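ASSEMBLY PREDICTION REQUEST
Request ID: AP-0331
Submitted by: J.K., bench scientist
Number of chains: two
Total residues: 596
Priority: normal
Notes: Please return the full assembly, not individual chains.
Input sequences:
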Amino acid sequence: MLGEGIAKGLVETARNFFGSYFTKDRLTTVQYPEERLPQFEAARNFPFLVYDGGDWQAGLRCVGCQICEKECPPKCIYIEKSKDKKPDAVGKLQFYPAVFNIDVSVCMSCQICVEVCPFEAIKMDTEFELSTDDRFGGLLWDKAQLAKSNEHYRKIHPTEAAEVDARLAEEKAKVDAKVKAAAENKTTPTSPGAVQPGSGASSTQ
Amino acid sequence: MVETADQLFVILQHWLVGHAPASLRSILSVLLPVIAILVVFGLLFAITTILERKGLGRIQNRYGPNRTGPFGVLQPIADAIKSLTKEDVVPQAADKIVHFLAPVVLVLAAFSIYAVMPVGRNMVLANLDAGVLYFFAVSSVMELTIFMAGWSSRNKYSLLGAMRAIAQMISYEVPLILASITVIMAAGSMSTVTIVEKQAGFTGILPHWFVFTPWGFAGFILFMIAATAESNRSPFDLPEGESEIIAGYYIEYSGFKFALFFLGEYLGMFAISGLGITLFLGGWSAPLSFLTWLPSYLWFFAKLLAMIVVFIWIRGTLPRMRTDQLMNFAWKFMLPMTLLNLVTAGVWRFLPGGLLRWLVCSFLVVVPYVLLGRGLMQGWKLEKRVYRFAE
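STATUS: Completed
Returned structure:
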């Protein structure tokens, strides 16, 4: 009969209305700032620079190769390569980024910078509350703001970080073995330096 | 004591007017009720917006606004401040004067409807002999303002919305008026005050409301369906149709003019609910004889709030209709039903009271309803929709 469906619908909405006061499970809304849903492990929002050890300036993995700057589709990364070399976490002499800026407002969270980085130096963070009342300065993050420890990386993406750590350890072991072999063969003292470009190439695979 | 509480505002008005200088008295006696109407229905608008948002939220298993003040009750104030401080954008190609006038005239018309609304015993601004006629005359000004808004904006969507609104409102004004004519026939008067007084008596504990007769019940339902369409509310919200034509006729309005449109729309809804209450639900009279000690205006506003709740409930339940469904429903169902209802009301008037009258009139209401409903639903079956090109 005409109107039957309307009556059924009215009953259903009334049930929803009163049910939402009694059954908390019905309410799907999360009251965001006070309560929040756990993030997925694969969540990503904005890149950060990984550093090893306690000092971010010394431990930064980035060597200022500028691949990410060239690959970034919206061109939100700005890097100035250093003129001199500084010892990195393992004590090897490397270039370092004198300036490393990423514009939060331009970044589109595509993760391409992470994929092209041969040094596992840039990773995606899950932090998403990046709003600020300073439109220009507040949204342009420099090296100091971008640098986050490897422990932080392990915390936000445990599986991925474990893989990365294993790969880096493997490479390091390979390099160490080569250095050892070279030392045993009593070759010229310049050979450890000659190994280095090889280790860089192997890590791009 | 009960009498004083009932006539509190009337006494207050007389007292205030009595203390004014003689030259101001005539103006003041009109001005005071006008101010009261502006304040009371303005506040009711604020309450309704929060009620509606909370209610719709709960119907959809959400909380609704709960950030501004305790349980979000201060939301209307925040909304008011927001709309007042927003930029008022007028399209360059718009007809500036008409564009400005549309919301103003809408709110003016919406407020002037309340002149004939008896909100309590002796509480009516103007007891016109043709009160119901006045109501419909003023409410058609509201249709005009909607077309003014749609036309002057120079926007495709607003024009589409305005055309839809005009088509819908003209179609549904016919059953709306025909449904109220039954009451005018029964009461023998077009004065809203007289209509309420005719329903004020009691048999036992039950009131003499027109809704408790077969023709009155059918008339009330038909009236409320037409009223929903007249006030452009879901499921008859085609003129606004957010998902199709964005906001329809008020797409080019921003800031306070938009708020005025909102206000006008809600005031129209209250007004038409108020008329429904006056015509069918006994106006300010109590629903049961032993409840008459409560002041009459409280009963009116309780009924008005109940009607608003029903409007919100309906809005939370039904999806928007299609234009052809809308027109079919108006001309193939509403119009015949209201016309037959006129006959039923006449039969009720001339048959002697008793069981026979009830049986005959119920028959006259139910049978056409079932038959017309069956006719409307013929060839109307739910099935999975097949897309010719999209798959």
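REVIEWER COMMENTS: Chain B touches chain A at residues 55, 58-63, 313-314, 316-318, 333, 369-370, 372-374, 376-377 (CB under 8 Å).
SIGN-OFF: pending second reviewer
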